[in-house]
Amino acid sequence: MTLAGLGGRATIDQIMPSVAAALGAPGFANSLGLPEAPRYVVFLVDGLGLDLLREHADAAPFLSSLLNVDDVVCGVPSTTATSLTSLGTGVQAGSHGIVGYTSRVPGSGQRLNSLKWDQPIDPVIWQPHPTVLEQLQAAGVAASSVNDAKFVGTGLTLCSQRGVPFHGINSVWERLDVVLDVIESAPRSVTYAYESRLDHTGHGKGCTSPEWREMLTTIDAELADLREELPRDAVLLVTADHGMIDLPMADRFDVDSLPQLLDDVTLLAGEARFRHLYTRAGASADVAARWQAELGERAIVRTQDGLEDWFGPIAPDVRGRIGDVVVASLGDFAVFSSREFGIELKMTGFHGSVTEAELRIPVLVAP
User: Is the pTM of this model over 0.90?
Assistant: First the structure.
């Protein structure tokens, strides 16, 4: 990954439009070459990067046996809220506006947590694009979302999955039953389902831990069971929202220990591997230069000039949500803040940046 950006590679926002085209819906392009079928289940495993799956192929025999659509990346930043919204809407972050785990609310100067949705903002106004699921519903394809019951009506759900029935579930076995029920409810249907346990294990224990491998094996077996139970005319597509890397617990860089780096910075957002820095007017170039001089080869530091190669076309009302300076960490480095984001110092696994391990995602097809 270089400053040249994503280099024309396929990105996560192409998945659902390709599924729509494979279902025969008009107005969509099957840019990923997915097989035509009357029914699709799109199953996202949070945190299942392609590099991790290949490294631990023996722990996931079913997933590793499937055909993969080559060289697909999640986009920048490589983080859940951004990727789920890109998947759901078929557009990149610069258009849909969910530009990171946390980001600034223009005008108020407050920080929005896109997972918790902790600011009084209407998600439908913040993210105005229709979802591909609701477009398919309008085209006569029975579309639905199957997800943890706790996510019903949340800001991120409304940004990424709105406009179709939401089936809240409370267990893996309930998910299997509900997915089967909804996929069989119509001759043409598409169902989105989501799995979070692998990501949670990676953040807490690390993505190279025995616990992570055990969880991968568990999810692999569950998906094999799902494929076995699905109708023969249905395609199961398994993908992810980002990869993950482990970072050493010792000698972590805490920006609060170098207060000069925060001169002219009015708000810190993003996450450890991809920081948004919001600066005083006219100070972005000086801030970027100061940060790059301090961090050197440990990070890519950029102002907003040319960020379209990472975020895609940036809408006018989205630009103010993106940092005046962004810091993408490389190697085993990250920008921590003990004052603002103390919880991150307790984590082991991370994502968000522009390395291949964080960007590359599987698009596995089980016809």
Answer: yes
Would you tell me how many other CB atoms lie within 10 Å of the CB of residue 245?
24
Buried b / exposed e along 211-240 (16+ C-beta atoms within 10 A): ebbebbbbbbebbbebbeebeeebbbbbbb
Q: Rg of the chain's alpha carbons, rounded to an integer?
A: 20
Residue type, 334: A
- List phi, psi (to 5°) of 187: -70, -25
Closest CA to 82 of 68, 72, 96, 69: 96
Q: Kindly state the tokens that stand for 315.
A: 């809408």
Nearest to 359 by CA among 69, 76, 57: 76
Helix (H, G, I), strand (E, B) or coil at 67: strand
**Which domains are seen in the chain, by residue range?**
10-247+354-366 (3.40.720.10), 255-348 (3.30.1360.180)
Is 346 within 8 Å of 247 (Cβ atoms)? Answer: no
Instruction: Identify the band that residue 4 occupies on the pLDDT scale cut at 50, 70 and 90.
Output: very low
Residue 130 has a pLDDT of: 98
Q: State the distance between the two ends of the chain, measured CA to CA, in whole angstroms.
A: 32
Half-sphere exposure for 254 (CA within 13 Å, toward CB):
15
Long-range CB contacts (< 8 A, 24+ apart) of 260-269?
A: 260/290, 261/290, 261/291, 261/294, 263/287, 263/290, 266/109, 267/104, 267/109, 267/111, 268/337, 268/340, 268/341, 269/100, 269/102, 269/103, 269/104, 269/111, 269/323
CA dihedral angle for residue 286, residue 292, residue 295, residue 300, rounded to 10 degrees:
130
298-348 pLDDT per residue, tens = 999 999 999 999 999 999 999 999 999 999 999 999 999 999 999 999 999
